[in-house]
Specification:
Mean pLDDT: 90
Oligomer: single chain
Strand order of the largest sheet: 4-11-3-10-8-9
Low-confidence stretches: 1-30, 804-856
């Protein structure tokens, strides 16, 4: 069989997106109360139809029976109206966060971009009325945000004290003073209420999303910007055009200055490593410049260094990891390129008959498990509604595509990832790969076998690592649940698919020709690939991975070490590379497509599918086999006959369905009509598929709730105990933070003492209460659990009153405080000294000891 050099790359599983839900369970067994309609392999229903319904008509369409579940959140007012409608049930989840991204690029001489000045960027925090947005625009169905994690996220407990120290409130006068000082310092002049630079008015382009509440939010912020003297041009756009304008252009072209971003959560994360990097660290490619070759780049070496340490497990303890997380959060907030606004509690309506929904704590019914198990009794299909099924940014390729929630809502039902996130704990767990972790970390190293291999891009083949190679951890991966089954086009999944994907990743990074074409993915992947030390095939099903990575939770080591998402067969990846790198007919990423004036490769589009099909035809005609990338220790993993069978099966698939999306999950994509906003999924009933209905159903988690906080016993000068009652699943804990709002100072923080499984206490000494001046104090309580990766926060106000005093001989003497719950009497005896033979006086003071308790 002939061989030839081709180019191909599969992005390693960096987990940088917020839109892909990765969920799962430690045990493959149905949750109580779930009665699957049948026991055949695959999902609970035979067909799923995705259709677009504008959010303004979604509620009416659901009530009419046009759909069974709407997975784009309803607007808040509409959700309130639908909440009590007969035949409808509502799912809720804090699934969407909103932020402002600012363009910090410097201008050419003679011009001025105010957002190139860090102090001005940070000052914009003071014109965002987060409380008003949460309470009025979202009608209480949102929580203000100051950083990348919301009050619902587990790592919020790490950054909460820092957020208090920043003292960020709605203070437009403070913002105006800062902006005025900085603009004058930069040489600008205020003329007729607006800032000018060298006699030209400064104008800011504000991209405002128009589909949802962000339009109102953007309008409010525009008004505040005008008050600062910053002339703002609002540009209202929907998803596709807005994304292209902001993320697809060189920031120094100044097609935008601000943008109202929205982020859809896919799954909970117990210990965040990717989100904080995505939102602050330039190296991961999501900050202005986006690591695209030829673009101006926002750079911050300190942030990148901290971010990489968190991402790559460069810490010794949990406490060190948390300190790194805190430092990076502080630097990211101070840089203020991305300002956070709110997390919305999304409302997802469904028909009352819908059963089998797993409500993960981050995305509710949008998670990857829901449609595997969901069904309506006596029906064999489901219709799922969303704002869009396809947009101009909905690009289906597993390398530089799937960057929007709309494509991912469908894609997540078509493939099975090796490792997933538990829908409640947020920790990595096995899904279709079993694993064993051995680590010498955080400070030791293991020997890498001399016959372990790595891809050598210069040699163009896999080479043994040789003697003396070391690694921190070894992860043994068992792919049996894949290799005993088939791809959607009927071809067996084999070790060849894994090894080819490893080649794909490494050659994209270390082959200079490929890296120069797809610069962004190569640049952002290299720091991670540099930590892989070797691979070794143990048998037909098992692969060892050696990697310099450690984590205090071994499952995170396994998740990091996964070398492939195994989402598409090797021949599709090879054909895509032929189109992208050899023929240069398309590109994997949007920025590369723009740079080389070619299409952004999308496997659901007939045009691109035909390009891939044509490449497969040529492979077959030439009897082509990529031997170098499929040969380990001199042994080829694929025969000529197997390769030809795969090529033909993929061609037949395209001829039947008109698309080239082939994967291995519970559903097959059999029809996609972009113009009609429609997609059809068909159950994959292959008898070799390892899962059946009920295997991955979890239902909903028990809620975590702070039932009460009793601050009534706090009185100045006395020891005091605050009693706290919490309910929820698993082993419960509670943290506290005592804050003086008058001085904007944190007085103390810590972990509450556990009195019983649900009862906690915060103790204040008499010295501590004596040092507290009279006034109102805020006591924040954060409850958390080992079995759910979210938090609940509640604030109790302590109204500390100065003790009553009595005038005695021209002076005053404080009384002894009472119990803090009822009125009491405290005697004080005054004895006059020395030669005075008179008796003393006994004075009784009546104290009003009840304290006002307010919960917030």
């Amino acid at each position: 069989m002939a061989t030839r050099r081709t180019y191909r790359y599969m992005r390693i599983p960096l987990a940088i997106g917020l839109t892909i839900a990765l969920l799962g369970s430690v045990l493959v067994q149905p949750a109580l109360g779930y009665e699957p309609p049948h026991a055949e392999p695959g999902p609970a229903v035979d067909r799923v139809y995705f259709k677009a319904f504008h959010v303004d008509i979604a509620a009416a369409s659901l009530e009419k029976g046009d759909m069974d579940l709407y997975i784009y959140s309803l607007k808040t007012l509409m959700a309130e109206q639908l909440a009590d409608a007969p035949g409808v049930k509502m799912f809720e989840a804090p699934a969407t966060s909103f932020s402002l991204i600012l363009n910090p690029a410097p201008t050419q001489e003679g011009e001025l971009n105010p957002f190139s000045i860090k102090e001005i960027r940070f000052a914009l925090n003071y014109i965002i009325d987060r409380a008003h947005i949460a309470q009025e625009i979202y009608k209480g169905m949102a929580k203000p945000m100051l950083a990348q994690v919301s009050p619902f996220d587990f790592d919020y407990r790490i950054v909460q004290p820092l957020l208090q120290e920043f003292k960020i409130l709605y203070q437009p006068d403070l913002a105006k003073q800062i902006v005025t000082d900085e603009m004058i310092r930069a040489g600008a002049q205020l003329v007729d209420g607006y800032w000018h630079y060298q006699d030209t008015r400064i104008e800011l382009k504000f991209i405002i999303r128009s589909e949802d509440e962000r339009r109102v939010m953007g309008d409010l912020i525009k008004i505040e910007l005008d008050k600062l003297g910053l002339f703002t041009i609002p540009i209202y756009q929907q998803f596709g055009p807005a994304i292209s304008r902001v993320y697809g252009n060189d920031p120094q072209l100044f097609e935008w200055h601000l943008y109202t971003e929205g982020w859809g959560k896919g799954a909970p994360e117990r210990y965040d490593f990717s989100l904080i990097n995505q939102m602050y660290a330039p190296w991961l490619g999501n900050m202005p410049g986006f690591q695209e070759l030829g673009f101006w780049q926002y750079e911050n070496e300190a942030i990148d260094e901290l971010g990489k340490r968190i991402f790559m497990g460069d810490f010794q303890t949990v406490d060190e990891r948390n300190e790194l997380y805190l430092q990076l959060t502080q630097l990211g907030m101070e840089e203020a390129v991305r300002l956070w606004v709110a997390t919305a509690i999304n409302n997802f309506p469904a028909v009352a008959e819908l059963d089998g929904v797993t409500e993960d704590i981050a995305s509710g019914p949008r998670g990857q498990l829901t449609l595997r198990e969901a069904y309506i009794p006596e029906e064999d299909g489901l219709t799922i509604g969303s704002q869009w099924v396809w947009t101009s940014r909905s690009t289906w390729n597993p390398i530089g595509g799937f960057g929007d929630i709309y494509s991912n809502d469908i894609w997540g039902n078509l493939f099975d990832p090796p490792i997933i996130r538990h829908p409640f704990t947020g920790e990595p767990i096995p899904f279709r790969v079993q694993y064993q972790v051995n680590s010498a970390g955080p400070s030791g190293q293991l020997n890498v076998p001399s016959d372990a291999f790595l891809w050598d891009a210069k040699a163009g083949k896999f080479l043994s690592v040789g003697t003396g190679e070391k690694a921190v951890s070894k992860v043994t991966l068992d792919f049996s649940a894949y290799f005993s089954s088939n791809w959607h086009h009927g071809q067996p999944i084999t070790m060849a698919d894994v090894i080819y994907s490893i080649f794909h990743s490494f050659d994209m990074v270390y082959n200079e020709d490929k890296a120069n074409i797809e610069f962004t993915v190569a640049t952002t992947s290299k720091p991670v690939l540099d930590t892989f030390r070797g691979f070794k095939v143990l048998d037909d099903n098992t692969l060892e991975v050696y990697v310099d990575f450690w984590h205090f939770v071994p499952d995170y080591i396994a998740s990091y070490a996964i070398p492939t998402p195994l989402s598409m067969p090797w021949e599709i990846l090879a054909a895509m590379d032929e189109v992208v790198f050899a023929k240069r007919q398309a590109a994997y990423t949007d920025t590369a497509a723009a740079r080389f004036s070619v299409d952004w490769l999308s496997l659901i589009m007939d045009r691109d599918g035909r390009l891939v099909r044509n490449a497969l035809r040529e492979f077959g005609d030439d009897s082509y086999l990529p031997l170098e990338s499929l040969t380990i220790n001199g042994e080829s993993l694929v025969s000529e006959q197997e390769a030809l069978a795969r090529y033909q099966a993929a061609i037949d698939w395209f001829n039947e369905h008109g698309l080239m999306v082939i994967s291995n999950g519970p559903f097959q994509l059999v029809r996609f009509d972009a113009a009609a906003q429609f997609a059809e999924l068909k159950a994959f009933r292959d008898p070799t598929y390892p899962f059946k209905p009920g295997d991955w159903f979890f239902g909903s988690s028990e809620a975590l709730e702070i039932k009460s906080i009793d601050t009534s016993a706090i009185s100045p000068g006395q020891d005091a105990t605050v009693s706290i009652e919490v309910s929820g699943p698993g082993e419960l804990s509670a943290d506290y933070l005592l804050f003086d709002p008058a001085l904007s100072t944190i007085l103390m923080t810590g972990e509450a003492e556990k009195i019983s499984p649900t009862s906690f206490a915060v103790h204040l000494s008499s010295q501590e209460t004596s040092a507290m001046e009279s006034g109102v104090y805020y006591l924040y309580i954060l409850a958390h659990s080992d079995s759910i990766s979210s938090l609940t926060e509640r604030r109790a106000d302590i109204d500390l009153q100065a003790p009553p005093t009595s005038t005695i001989l021209g002076g005053t003497q404080p009384t002894t405080p009472g119990t803090g719950k009822e009125e009491g009497i405290s005697p004080i005896l005054i004895i006059l000294p020395i030669a005075v033979v008179v008796a003393g006086a006994v004075v009784f003071f009546i104290l009003r000891g009840g304290r006002v308790k307010r919960a917030n």
